[in-house]
Every structure is written in C-alpha cells, then in structure tokens.
Amino acid sequence: MLTKILGLSLFLLASQTSFAATTDASTSISQALQHEARTDANKKRDIARKPEQTLAFFEVTPEKTVVEVWPGSGWYTEILAPLLAEKGKLYAAHYSDKFTLLPADYMQKGRTEFNNKLASHPIYKNVTVTDFAPLADIAIAPASSVDVVLSLRNQLYMFEGETSLKHALANFYKALKPGGVLGVVAPRLPEHLLNTEWKKTGYVPEQLWLTLAKEAGFSFEDRDDMLLNPKDTADHPSGIWSLPPTLAGTDEEKAKHRAIGEVNQMVLKFRKPQE
Predict the structure, then answer these.
(1) Neighbours of 217 (CB within 10 A)
(2) For the chain, what are the domain ranges?
(3) Torsions phi, psi of 269, nearest 5?
(4) Which architecture does CATH list for 2-271?
C-alpha cells in the first residue's frame, strides 16, 4: 500500500513539474509576442499563424538554442529574438548566393531588409546570421549544438527536386543535438493532387516530408492540425502565392483568395534520436 502511495505521489509531482514547465514556456512566448520590436502588421497575423501554439508544440523555450531557416523579413525573428535573448541563442540561416533558383537581387534585398531589422532594436544584438542553400554544404550552426531547427512556411526546397530536401534534412540533422527537434510548418498538398504539376505551386506532400525525414535519421513524433485551412483547395493560378498575404492575381481573384484565408499548412515535429 505504501509503495502504491509513493508511486502515485511521484507521478503527481512529475505531472505538476511538467505542467509548470509548459506554463512557464507559454508565458514567455506570450511576453515575446507583446515585445515592442514587433510591428503592428505582423501582430495582426497572429490569429492565422498561431505562433504561441506553434512554438510551444516545437518545444521552444527561453533557454534553447534555435535555428530559424530562411527567416525572410523576420516575422518569426521578432518573436524568437526576445524569447531567446537572455538565456538562449538564435541562429538565422538566411538566403545564400549558392541558392540559384531565386534571383540574386531578390535574395540580396531580402537579406538587406533582414539586416536592417536586426539593426533597428537592441533585442536583436545576439542574433547570429548564417547562410542556407538546400544543395550547398554550408553549416547553418555548429554541429550538434542546436536544440530546435525551425523550418516555418518554407516552400522552396522542392524547386530543385527531392534531392534538395534530402540535403536540407541532412544539414538540419547535423546541426541538432541528439534529442533535438525539427519543427516543420509547410503548405500541405492534398493527396488527390499528387499526379499534377505541383512542384512549382509551393505545396508539398506530407508523406514526402515523412519519408525523407525518416531516411535522414529523424523519428517522426507528432503532427498538429492547428494551421489546417479546409477552404484552401491548393489549385490556385499562382499556387500558394495566390493566397494572403501575397495575393497574386487580378482584383477579382484577390477578393476570392482573401476570403479563403492563409495557406493550408501542415505542422510536423521530428526528433533526432538520442545516441
């Protein structure tokens, strides 16, 4: 009887500790969401992007070392930088000139805008900018130094075929510590469109991520439906760029696509096994 009571007590203590850790992390993310460095325009997209739930799902906490892959203009950097500023570390693996499928001036413009953001507020002083191109042998961070790699809404891996995604996954795997998390948010291609010319649309089959991540050595751990949008049929004239916030097309098409909302996204969590 005493053994059962002690076992129950230990279980309850562990549960309370886990709950407290989760609550503390959530509170820290909530605080980062309200940081003064965030723009009002970016805050308005929190409803569609659900950053608090997304980062919590990927186990991002203030003491973690994190790589943000292709941060673009820094939408998530505005959240990650204040979250990790005191106890953690943020690497921003931005465009590399070794990625040849985007115009050089476009990538340079993107990096310049990102660098200007980093210079705009002291909260970004500890962000380390590195390079990333799917097929290039460039370290996004020191090997086995990272707790979480985040690939958030990046759709360009497939522009160079499956080989580019394989190389990208190998790069992520190398950067992660044993037990580290790869968090993927990506436009999800419906299964009935697998036989179409989908590679230039920005949508990617979920099964492709699952298969290639497993081949790279990752264990698939979990998925979440928080960013699914059933209104998104994934058959738009300009692919994912038809939908907000890009809204490519005529005024009539923009009105139609604005009513659909943001892209249907899969949220997948992978883990590098413990050695």
Answers:
(1) 14
(2) 2-271
(3) -120, 125
(4) 3-Layer(aba) Sandwich (3.40)
The pLDDT value given to residue 3: 43
Q: What backbone torsions phi and psi does residue 255 show, to the nearest 5 degrees?
A: -65, -40
DSSP 96-125: -TT--SS-HHHHHHHHHHHHHHHTT-GGGT
pTM: 0.89
Phi first, then psi, for residue 185 (nearest 5°) are -120, 120
- 53-70: string of b/e by CB count within 10 Å (b at 16+)? ebbbbbbbbbebbbbbbb
Q: pLDDT, tens digit, for every residue of 92-115?
A: 999 998 888 788 898 899 999 999
Q: What is the pLDDT of residues 39-83, one digit of tens each?
A: 999 999 999 999 999 999 999 999 999 999 999 999 999 999 999
3-class state of residue 76 by DSSP: coil
DSSP letter for 190, please. Answer: P
Task: Taking each helix axis as running N to C, give the angle between helix 206-215 and helix 162-175, from 0 to 180 degrees, rounded to the nearest 10.
Answer: 50
